[in-house]
Amino acid sequence: MSNIVFEVKDLCAYYDDHRVLSNVNVKIVEKKITAIMGPSGCGKTTFLRCLNRLNEFSPSFKMTGKIFFKGQDIQTIKNVNEYRRKVTMVFQKPNPFPMSIFDNVAYGLRLMGIKDKHELAWRVQMALEKAALWDEVKDKLKKPAVQLSGGQQQRLCIARALAIEPEVILLDEPTSALDPVATAKIERLLESLSEQYTVIIVTHSMSQALRISDYILFFYQGRLIEYGETSEMVKFPQHEITRQFLTGKIG
Ligand SMILES: Nc1ncnc2c1ncn2[C@@H]1O[C@H](COP(=O)(O)OP(=O)(O)OP(=O)(O)O)[C@@H](O)[C@H]1O
């Protein structure tokens, strides 16, 4: 049987009095790729940010219901930074820090207290290899990260996330700013990462979800309308609204 990494129970989310998620109940499977889909404004990003408590930075945000990460109610977690190390986020726009390629990847490791140069060096190399970027940057690790292409910057951000050895990688439309070649590289990377990590990705691209995801969560107007294996959902959507979305009639 598949292991469940997140169990979401009756999740409602609000910005001030505006309800943006309504009674979401879902279980997310470990070491698979889950795509979060739905029309603009349906609550995809809000849902993703609930999973690692990032919404807490929005003063108007409130939620009810519960989210369990491997059985633990995440609201009871005291060390939120440690939790966000395990459940890490990669954003839509590549956001390398204004420092060298090496220091970007080493950043989280140094925060974790790793100072030994050899350990930092091999951990940075490992993360860059996992992010399929090592061969492209191994001779310019001291160069500023902002000199990399957009696609390379996004893989650097993934390497930075991987360096701190997370269990779950949340990605919010990670390829929307990239060209098709860079997108294909990231998609291949995510497929290989899902052997070791749980990958949860917000995407607007149906073809991307079809190419890489094992499961789809389909949201509409703040409600989780349908959840299931990608191949099944695409062939046999259970709801008319899902069918309309899948066939491009809404979106
Ligand atoms: N920080 C915020 N403060 C107030 N309202 C917000 C905030 N963030 C999002 N919203 C509102 O919550 C609703 C859901 O937004 P969210 O970004 O989660 O949707 P989405 O499905 O990810 O949209 P998109 O596909 O356009 O990125 C929208 O009506 C949006 O305007």
TrEMBL record:
UniProt EC number: 3.6.3.27
Molecular function in Gene Ontology: ATP binding; ATP hydrolysis activity; phosphate transmembrane transporter activity
Q: Which CDD domains match?
A: ABC_PstB_phosphate_transporter
Q: Which GO terms describe its cellular component?
A: membrane
**Origin: domain of life:** Bacteria
User: Keywords for this entry?
Assistant: ATP-binding, Hydrolase, Nucleotide-binding, Transport
Top EC group: hydrolase
Q: Which GO biological process annotations does it have? A: phosphate ion transmembrane transport
Coiled-coil annotation: which residues?
Answer: none
* Start and end residues of each ABC transporter domain: 6-246
Q: Can you name this protein?
A: Phosphate ABC transporter ATP-binding protein, PhoT family
Classification lineage: Bacteria, Thermotogati, Thermotogota, Thermotogae, Thermotogales
